[in-house]
Prior knowledge:
Elements: H1 11-31, H2 43-57, H3 62-66, H4 69-80, H5 83-105, H6 107-114, H7 118-121, H8 135-144, H9 150-166, H10 178-193, H11 200-213, H12 218-228, H13 233-247, H14 254-270, H15 273-288, H16 292-304, H17 314-332, H18 336-350, H19 359-374, H20 385-392, H21 397-405, H22 410-416, H23 419-433, H24 439-447, H25 453-457, H26 460-470
Amino acid sequence: MKEDLPTVIDSDDLQNQVDQFSERLSSYLCYLGLPAENVLVELSERRLIINIMPNIIRRLTDDQKIKSYYISKFIASCLSGLFDAALNYLWDETISNLRSKVAHFDLNYFYDSTITDGARREKFISEEDLKNLDDWELIRGCTETGIISEIGYIHLDFIRQMRNFASAAHPNQTQLTGLQLANWLDTCIREVLAKDPSGPVLEIKRLLTNIRKERLDDKSAAPIIASIKKLPKDLLHSLLRALFGMYTDIKLPQNVRDNIDKISIDVWTLADESAKQNISKKYAIYSANAEQQRKSLAREFLNKVDGLSYLAEDQLAGELSEALENLSKAHYDFQNFYKEEPHAKMLTKLIPKTGIIPEIVRYDYVKTLTICRLGNRYGVSYGALPYYDLLIGAFRDDEILDFFELLDDLEIISLLQYKIFLNRFIEISLRLEGQTINEILKHALRKLRDYTDKDITSRRAYREMITLTRS
């Protein structure tokens, strides 16, 4: 016999039921001789999220709601008073949704834009392989391919960190509030669950589909080039990486390379210097790894776009790039305090006696060292710390200028919104002040101490630093 379920939930009645459940559960825990204090979040916090929940959930369509199993578990955990478990379920729903969006968008484009290590890239082929990407890689890749916005990245990266340090995913005693959970649910729904790729992102999907399935000539390529010229810079750079990744795939049919030839010069011309240098770094990696076929195809691509001038110091640049990639991955992995040291040591061995870092990897070098030196909420890798201080202590004026450029980098901005990382960033700037005789740089480094987290996230600090140092 079918139950008669209520079509309208009375908030007061639900709260009373939650209160009764909590009392019974606490009594049962005591009966079992288990702790009952500080296990469930206090009732007032649960009442708060009960009242807010309907207004947040209504942003989802009926079709989206019916697929959101982890949101159901999130709500059940909230009502039960297990906020740390609720945060874990919310993150699971968000990651699952992002993987689905990537799979239905363009997997190869996403992998080519996200995974910079050629050997590692070959291991990512199907939708199933998305599970082998770390969460931070997934959300960064979704930002680079336009699936989520920059502001979405900042919010999601914060939730990711809270999930790592304050949810049931790890042992902790962190107290979460109903308002925090409600805000994070609202963010995940607005930025991910209720939002589909649109505009320029869909243009790229159509473009990549045409490149793979159609045969382009000059006439059919003209409107495609016109669309490319309208792309935002970040998506243009992702497209360049994807085209290069496709071109150097030894299994790619020749007709697809012919199609890429029709548009690659325009994409290359429109890209900025850092994007072009990233392509030349990949060529250097193929050379260092003796991947002769891919190296030959990479040279062919660069020759056709008139980009061979970017191949200076390719061997060292390739080795440095690979070492930085390995160090970055170790930093974001679990047990990073133990994993970072050997990679930091290897990086130290690669630095030439002159201290001159090849220009094409210099920004990544400064960025990776800075991120690792900032550490995480638990501190900095003890074994790797002396190597970081040694390498940062050898920064020349060129590296210090790149240090200021970090204030415009989304990953750095996402970290510096927290006081603990901003303080460590300032500590680095204090050391750098004693490493230069350039009075303009000294003044700029001193000025960094006056900025707040809001100055960083609004990019005010970056604009003022560039005005000071580049004038």
